[in-house]
């Protein structure tokens, strides 16, 4: 009988991980232990085999699209570990992947501003490489993005306008700008580009050696995930964003320079529009979550304003 990973006993989780680890590699296991970092809807183990190699085993409630992960690996190389489905016992799904040696990026905490600017520039370059040539974003804008914006304006904003009067203006502007995004290429999109999923090495400056957790990858117009630079460059304290221009602006600018390095200057405004629309639809007003809670809404307008203030001058 299968269970949700959060309902597993410690013994069941360990048994499941052992079965999966043995299926993933046919070497004797020396050590199997819980990873110090855990994500949502999954339990992750690190496996140390007797041949001195390490792997990651992940027990999951949901399926990983291994085809899209393979595409990401083909585009970006070893920074995206290939993922393989392995034998699941107590859980619905189990996956194995290569262990990446390094540490999670902790901007503004562990790394210096100069290092964070360098890493942000690397990240912008990585996202830029994920463009899929030959196809525009017209269909996705016409049949998904515009209808979703219209639906939120019609069904959700009326109950929010008293407390957040500027939301409607922002939504209407983004709806009007959405046609601009049609000119951008479709892109293999990692939907959760946060520092927790960025692995850096110990070199100076640190180099990105891993971009992990591609399980939610999808195809979207270019830069619709790039709004997450705001969540990287600005510290959030007790639910409130606390931007410091002396650190946030240099990090955000370094990211933009590499993200748009090969973009036609006439399309840079569309890139910013895609970032803002992406933040609205895939972060704050995610379609699976209904009306956002106040802890999210209290930052929405400030984040949109910040993206505009930082990047609009760079579009000229």
TrEMBL record:
One Pfam family here: APH
InterPro entries tied to this protein: Aminoglycoside_PTrfase (IPR002575), Kinase-like_dom_sf (IPR011009)
Segment forming the signal sequence: none
Residues in Aminoglycoside phosphotransferase domain copies: 148-223
Record's protein name: Aminoglycoside phosphotransferase domain-containing protein
Organism in which the protein naturally occurs: Serendipita indica (strain DSM 11827)
Lineage summary: Eukaryota, Fungi, Dikarya, Basidiomycota, Agaricomycotina
